[in-house]
Amino acid sequence: MKEVICTCCPQGCHLQVDEANDYKVTGNGCPNGIAYGKEELTHPTRIITSQEQLALRWETGRPGQSGGAVAPAPCAGCIPPGKRAARSHR
Asked: Number of helices and strands (H, E) in the chain?
C-alpha cells in the first residue's frame, strides 16, 4: 500500500492506494481522488514550468515547451539534446 497526496483540489487528501487489490483508493474526499490515485501509480505525469524572457522582464509560471503533462525523465538531469531549451547569454 502506498500513500499519495492528492492535488486535484485544495483539500490535499492523503490517499492510500492498494496495488495488490486492483489499485483500490481510500482516504479520498472527492471522486477525483480515486482517478488521481490510480493514475499516479500506473502512469505518473508532471507539469513542467519554466521561465522565459519576454522583452526585458521575466515571466514565471508559464508552461515551457512541454505543452502539458509529460512522463518523468529516467533520471533527474537526463534531458535529450533535442529537447533542451536554448539559453541566451548576456
From this structure: 1, 7
